[in-house]
Design brief:
Structural class: alpha+beta
Shape: globular
Oligomer: single chain
Distance between the termini: 63 Å
CATH architecture of the largest domain: Orthogonal Bundle
Strand content: 5-15%
CATH superfamily of the largest domain: Transferase(Phosphotransferase) domain 1
Radius of gyration: 23 Å
CATH class of the largest domain: Mainly Alpha
Number of domains: 2
Helix content: 25-40%
Number of helices: 10
Amino acid sequence: VGLLGEEEIKRRFVSEAVTMASLRHPHIVSIWDFHDTPELTFFVMEYYCNNLGLIIGETYRVESPSRMLSVDKAIDYIRQILIGLSRLHQAGIIHRDVKPYNIMVTDRDTVKIDDFGLSKLRGEAFRGPDNLMVGSPYYAAPEQEEDPNQVDCRADLYPVGMMLYRMLAGELPIDEFKSLAESNADLDAAWDGFVLKAIAEERESRFATAKEMLEALNDLQVTWEAKKEKVCEMPPAGVSKSTRKDFSKEPLRSKSLKVGPRQAREVFGADALWRPVHYAVNDFQENSHGTVTDKATRLLWEQEGSDYPMTWHEAHGYIEQLNRGRFAGSANWRLPTADELMSLLTPAPRAADLCIEPIFDQSKRWLWSSDRRSFVAAWYVSIDMGFISWQDFTCYYYVRAVSAQT
């Protein structure tokens, strides 16, 4: 308020609502209602618990390492972001604050661009102190820092390149640009060229439009898919056991508990990015009645899981239904603990890992645990990203029931 004044803040708030409400697109967050009175001004928008920042584990110390995404996942997210930006730019809107925490991720893993508080309509001038930065450090394009009024759509493509690099390398190219092959041997120089063009210092050297950048991404994907096919034709390589732990003689915790973030990493055996310090040695056996037995941990798992994502309280109701119906002949199903769910996690996949047909339904990416973080939040596990985190009971995640092997 001190920097901009109450009147300017309200003008921006209303402008954001009008901007978002004018666009109907699957990759842009929707406005459902708007209300303006002398006493109160608000708008109602769709909300999702997850965003790209949470998924990659980006913190307020943006320079710190983050979780890497698989190449397929990174391509999928960047494609959706570019499609959404293309719609914005077609409407003459420059977002000016594209970053992981402004990219919502829905229960169905769809990306939606959010937070238009710093957006700029074509021909509109920035109102604020000359020394007020528009955008976020490391993600704002160089020309945006110098003169936010003179940016065009290429200023939104710069942070997309930065996000792609972060997804694939687990860090930002701040001090120097390291080849992506150093982080993922499956990537070649073409990936470096794509990112370097997107984050070029001079905007004239970047992709001209989101559509052009999307076409270049599609070319990269074609090459990537061909590489995966070749890798899958090769003999399988040995699997490293250096980070794996045998839980056959040390049963996983089955009793639910309430644990806060300060103690959780130690309790769950997680590293700084909330991934398992030791991955479990699994010995899966697919059964005929919709279950999977892990002989190593002596646990019986529901193979598919719930058909739809649900709240934490609904998850308990789902378990009750399984027991009432004696799913797979058992009435001993329960919501798994975080420890048990983490036994299903594997290190970040490389091209060779994608040749193996998964035994569980991979569309169920986020799974509720029975462990609570507080009286209003619980812990969940991201199966595809391989980490544990927490969210409010009201968030929507899937359920995969577990039972002790009999």
